C-alpha cells in the first residue's frame, strides 16, 4: 500500500508494529501464561523484536515475498485486489515466521543447540497464530487506518 516511498514505509511500520505486538503477546501468554507482570514484560521485550522484524521486513522478507507473491498471483486488470493482498500477506507471514521464530528461539535459549531444537516448534506455534492474525485482524485494521491517513485520490476523466 502507499503511493510514495514514505507512505510505503509508514504502511510497513504499521503492519510490522501490529504483527509484532500481537505475536509478542501470543508468545508471552504461551510461555508465561497470564500474570501481573505481563504488561511490564511486554513493554520491555517488544522493542527489540520490533526492530529486528522491521529490518527483516524492509531488507529481506519484503524483497523476497512480493516477487514470489506476484509469481503465484499474476496481477492484471482482471485480478481481484483481495487475491493480491492474500498472496503478499501469506508470503510475508511465511518469511517472517521463519526468521522471527529463529530470533525467538535464540532470545529464549541463546546461541545454543537448544535454540536449534526449539526452532521447529517455534515455527509451528507462530505460523498457527501469525497467518490468521495477519489476514483476519491486522491487515484489515492497518489497511483501513492507512486509508484514513492517506486517502486515495481518484483521477476523474
UniProtKB/TrEMBL annotation:
Organism whose genome encodes this protein: Clostridium saudiense
Record key words, sorted: Membrane, Transmembrane, Transmembrane helix
Transmembrane region(s): 9-26, 46-65, 85-107, 127-146
UniProt-recorded name of the protein: DUF2798 domain-containing protein
Source species, domain of life: Bacteria
One Pfam family in the UniProt entry: DUF2798
Lineage: Bacteria, Bacillati, Bacillota, Clostridia, Eubacteriales
Amino acid at each position: 500500500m502507499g503511493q510514495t516511498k514514505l507512505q510505503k514505509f509508514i504502511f510497513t511500520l504499521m503492519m510490522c508494529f501490529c504483527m509484532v505486538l500481537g505475536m509478542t503477546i501470543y508468545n508471552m501468554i504461551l510461555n508465561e501464561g497470564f500474570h501481573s507482570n505481563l504488561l511490564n514484560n511486554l513493554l520491555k521485550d517488544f522493542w527489540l523484536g520490533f526492530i529486528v522484524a522491521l529490518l527483516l521486513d524492509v531488507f529481506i522478507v519484503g524483497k523476497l515475498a512480493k516477487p514470489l507473491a506476484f509469481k503465484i498471483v499474476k496481477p492484471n486488470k482482471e485480478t481481484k485486489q483481495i487475491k493480491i493482498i492474500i498472496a503478499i500477506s501469506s508470503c510475508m507471514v511465511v518469511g517472517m515466521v521463519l526468521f522471527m521464530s529463529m530470533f525467538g528461539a535464540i532470545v529464549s535459549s541463546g546461541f545454543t543447540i537448544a535454540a536449534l531444537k526449539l526452532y521447529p516448534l517455534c515455527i509451528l506455534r507462530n505460523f498457527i497464530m501469525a497467518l490468521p492474525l495477519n489476514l483476519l485482524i491486522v491487515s484489515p485494521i492497518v489497511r483501513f487506518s492507512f486509508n484514513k491517513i492517506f486517502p486515495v485520490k481518484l483521477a476523474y476523466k
